[in-house]
Design brief:
heterodimer, A: alpha/beta, 12 helices, 15 strands, globular, B: Aspartate Aminotransferase, domain 2, 2 domains, seven-stranded mixed beta sheet, four-stranded antiparallel beta sheet, 36% helix
């Protein structure tokens, strides 16, 4: 029996001890009319060898494509040691560390993770992670509203330059809380957020969301935006890429007093693309808001003998204590993903992560420089980008992307649904994983697609 | 020692990052950071050794019996991890067009179909990333259903007092008031109290069955009738699905919406607190509101269903398809079990729980509901020991750690004093159960012999009992050099 160790003799002994004749009798409290006898749509069992074969076949489908999509998920090199250690049974198969004495490994690791994230973001505190970047932003919005109880209304400025899937997620999660999400536009030339003077005149805005870089890859004027928000008693929520933060000014240093809450997608820190998950969301804040922060938080303390130890802390915020008055219904973090990220950050260090960031910037710049020389291809915005950029095409984006796949290239993400005003636009990304040859191949393929040339033969 | 204390300036791992530091002088100086973050500067071997050693300070299913009630700490088959982490699957970008990601989508679609069968629900969406997010999706759908009917007086979600804390927290996140319903002396919902509480303001009820008290809610059909007659809907918290897999289905019990915890019933790893997966299933009338994305199949290929296909969806709960890698592990597990294997899960989970309950009773422990069958878990109360010997459930839990077992869930459900919620799962052998039972009996003797020693437990772990008050009052959440 798969994963059930009982022998017939043991089962018999156990039934005798209980005083019943059969296992069936143990279900006698379930009303008979509700019982079913079998599952009709679950196939018969496979052996490990058979499922291994099936999964290998499925994994190999389309596995050759070279990925130039970013748009919130980024292909970066992950050192071999990261997942070797992360999938050790002691991390992989442990529960949430409620019994602190029996969970010091996970707890210390999470404390180290919190420290690393606070360092990168130059913020005072960090939680132990949330589900993903999109849901972390939704939680940041709720947290900002809780921290601004004196405001007469619950309004949040959520620029259109924020990842559209994050905006959708925020809307779904905060929809029942009477929060108004105000979408502000971007400048068509620079791709940067534009905030009209006067939109804060009623003093009823709780927070401004600032993406860095924004969904177009464009670097925002974070200092000016932060100062504007703080002048109007508006909290600043930074939603940032952790690789970009190795080089760009950290949220804690934005403007005169820094961002108040910082969140984002942790995937670039050692998590594979994996069709979108599991990833993890990170969240940091100024210490004065820590009691409004959702999710698990680890603290360092001492045991009865004065020895250093770690435990879940500030649990009075959480659902298992506060029930209906909790800061959130969140019960888990993404522990295993954070385990990988912590090991990843240790292995690369600040120097390694900065190299990854710089190489990703340089490769993207090389790619857009090369393809923008092609007739019918132009860079959409004139402001500096970090490691992705919006390209406008003289042909429908979906056709171009489809044809690029014939060359083995996932050429970017089509923006026409979310930003129709940009025309035939795609957002593209070349991380440090791309070689000069990969970039040249993309550029040649784009040239062929835009000029309707026959597909080059691969026989060489 | 912390990883930061191994750090020495300028130490690096050249093979882990690009050989050269690329020129970034094209970026304006004003947007750059002035100093690099102080991350550890350690060698690869130091990192590997540090985190391997940390891992060894954890209890885990792979190393210990872990009878944590309501958490279903069953064996996580290694095949599920290995085949969910094939490079071809890990390389797939979430925005890859569906026609170039058919392998992953095939697994997700088949998982949806199997979960429909297991739960008896009309449709399933896999996207919620944890049980709590599944709950949120479920109650948000209940809200969307009432809103669509312009039924706007419904303001309350009923929640039994034994419910998990996420239930009332979720109701509030969805804009409802949570109203508690008491439990009768046999562990069932108090029907008179329920009848008195329902009314035009009732949006629905959130129930776990088997309940968090470790017993099957026998009057479920009656409860469904009361709620439905009042115009409310029934929400099923699937935390305890392991007990009834292939035996009885929430859809047949009259539930309108359910979430499943794949990290419990379908054996995906808990990972030290996530990632989980909390798919939701619904009855016919809630289908239009399911969260997106979902996967559909049109005879030839698999396709992703998004907001455009479902105008009434409650929306998206994450940027993409939830915790896809966790869903793949659950898929592999389901295929390894097959239909027969799933039914056996409930059989042996229930056998193990009832066996432990009977044997612990023999050893002198009091059960919270001695007249009832255990489901896949049961509750033991240490009220007597606390009163007579001054030893609390927490003390005994800590002493259990010294014996090399993880402790059961303590102080939950809140309405049973000094309780242990014990869930052995089907993957433990009689030998492990007997060893735990003997340890419990021995600890009971220790409580009589030397209560002070038990109260000071644990004695053999990396740390002794921690000062949680200090942790909360003198907040130390990030490490600072020379602090």
């Amino acid at each position: 029996m798969p994963f059930i160790p009982h022998t017939e003799a043991e089962t018999k002994t156990m039934l005798d001890a209980i005083g019943v004749d059969s296992i069936e009798q143990l279900f006698d409290e379930i009303p008979a009319e509700l019982r079913i006898n079998k599952l009709s749509n679950v196939p018969v069992a496979m052996s490990e060898m058979e499922i291994g074969r099936l999964m290998s076949d499925r994994a190999e489908q389309d596995a050759h494509l070279q990925c130039f999509i970013g748009a919130g998920s980024y292909e970066h090199h992950i050192p071999a040691a990261v997942w070797e250690i992360t999938t050790r049974g002691e991390f992989y198969s442990a529960y949430t560390p409620y019994q602190a004495e029996a969970s010091q490994g996970t707890l210390q690791l999470l404390y180290e993770y919190q420290t690393m994230m606070a360092e990168i973001m130059v913020m005072e505190v960090s939680n132990a992670s949330l589900y993903d970047g999109g849901s972390a932003l939704a939680e940041a919005v709720l947290m900002a509203v809780r921290s601004q109880r004196k405001k007469t209304a619950k309004r949040i400025i959520m620029p259109r330059a924020v990842n559209p899937n994050y905006r959708r997620t925020v809307r779904s999660i905060v929809s029942s809380q009477n929060i108004e999400l105000i979408e502000v536009d971007y400048d068509k030339a620079s791709g940067q957020i534009v905030i009209e003077d006067g939109c804060a005149d009623n003093n009823d805005i709780s927070a401004l969301i600032i993406p860095q870089p924004n969904f177009f890859g464009v670097i925002e004027e974070v200092d000016a935006l932060t100062n504007w928000a703080h002048k109007h008693n508006i909290l600043v929520i930074g939603v940032v890429n952790p690789i970009a933060m190795q080089l760009l000014k950290a949220p804690g240093q934005w403007g005169e007093s820094g961002a108040d809450i910082v969140c984002g997608e942790g995937q670039p820190l050692g998590i594979p693309l994996s069709s979108g998950g599991p990833y993890f969301g990170f969240m940091c804040c100024k210490e004065k808001f820590v009691r409004q922060m959702p999710g698990r938080i680890i603290g360092r303390t001492v045991d009865v003998e004065g020895k250093q130890g770690f435990s879940l802390t500030l649990q009075a915020r959480e659902q298992h204590i506060r029930r209906s008055k909790a800061t959130s219904n969140i019960c888990t973090n993404q522990g295993l993903m954070v385990t990988a990220a912590t090991i990843h950050m240790s292995l690369l260090g600040a120097d390694g992560l900065a190299r990854v960031a710089a190489a990703s910037h340089k490769n993207t710049l090389s790619l857009i420089t090369a393809i923008s020389k092609i007739d019918g291809v132009k860079v959409a915005f004139n402001n500096p980008c970090f490691h992705e950029s919006v390209i406008q095409l003289a042909r429908p984006a979906s056709e171009v992307l489809d044809e690029l796949i014939q060359y083995g290239i996932l050429g970017g993400y089509d923006l026409s649904k979310d930003y129709p005003e940009l025309g035939n636009a795609i957002v593209i990304c070349a991380t440090e994983t791309k070689t000069d040859a990969d970039i040249a191949a993309y550029s040649e393929a784009m040239h062929a697609v835009m000029h309707d040339l026959p597909i080059a033969s691969n026989d060489q | 020692m912390l990883i930061f204390e191994h750090s020495v300036d300028k130490r690096r791992n050249p093979s882990q990052s690009p050989r050269d530091m690329a020129d970034i002088s094209d970026l304006p100086q004003s947007c750059l950071r002035e100093t690099a973050p102080k991350l550890p500067a350690v060698s690869e071997m130091q990192t590997v050794r540090h985190y391997t050693r940390l891992s060894q300070k954890n209890f885990s299913i792979d190393t210990q019996f872990y009878p944590l009630g309501s958490c279903t700490m069953k064996y996580n088959p290694r095949a599920c991890n290995k085949y969910a982490m094939l490079p071809g699957l890990l390389r797939k970008h979430p925005l890859t067009p569906a026609k170039y990601n058919q392998g992953t989508l095939a697994c997700l679609y088949e998982l949806q179909e199997m979960l429909k069968d297991v739960t008896g629900m009309k449709e399933v969406s896999l996207s919620p990333m944890a049980g709590a997010q599944g709950e949120f999706a479920g109650v948000a759908m209940i809200r969307a259903y009432h809103d669509a009917r312009n039924d706007d007086v419904r303001s309350e979600i009923l929640v039994p007092d034994a419910a998990h804390g996420t239930n009332p927290a979720t109701a509030v996140m969805c804009g409802y008031k949570a109203r508690e319903i008491p439990t009768d002396k046999n562990g069932d919902v108090d029907l008179d109290a329920l009848r008195a509480a329902v009314g035009p303001q009732t949006a629905g009820i959130m129930l776990t069955n088997p309940s968090t008290l470790g017993v099957f809610e026998r009057k479920i059909a009656e409860i469904a009738k009361i709620i439905h007659e009042a115009g409310g809907l029934l929400y099923y918290d699937g935390a305890n699905l392991n007990a009834i897999l292939g035996k009885v289905r929430p859809g047949d019990m009259g539930f309108d919406v359910i979430h499943m915890n794949l990290h419990k019933t379908f054996s995906t790893p808990h990972g030290g607190g996530g990632p989980g997966a909390g798919p939701v299933g619904v009855s016919e009338r809630l289908v239009p509101y399911l969260p997106v994305p979902m996967v559909t199949y049109d005879d030839k290929s698999y396709r992703i269903i998004s907001e455009d296909d479902c105008p009434n969806t409650i929306g998206r709960l994450s940027a993409h398809m939830g915790n896809t890698g966790v869903l793949l592990r659950a898929y592999i597990y389901a295929r390894l079990l097959g239909a027969e294997g799933m039914v056996r899960v409930a059989d042996y989970a229930t056998l193990n729980a009832n066996y432990m309950m009977v044997r612990l009773k023999e050893k002198g422990f009091d059960m919270a509901y001695p007249e009832r069958r255990a489901t896949h878990e049961f509750i033991l109360t240490l009220k007597k020991q606390a009163k007579e010997l001054g030893v609390t459930a927490m003390d005994i839990a800590k002493r259990i750690l010294d014996y090399g077992f993880h402790a059961p869930t303590t102080y939950f459900p809140l309405l049973v004093p000094e309780c242990f919620l014990i869930e052995p799962t089907e993957t433990e052998s009689k030998y492990e159960l007997d060893a735990f039972i003997e340890a419990m009996a021995e600890i009971l003797q220790e409580c009589h012999r030397d209560a002070e020693m038990v109260k000071a437990a644990p004695h053999t772990l990396p740390v002794r009992r921690l000062d949680d008050v200090r942790a909360a009052r003198q907040l130390d959440l990030v490490w600072k050099k020379n602090a």
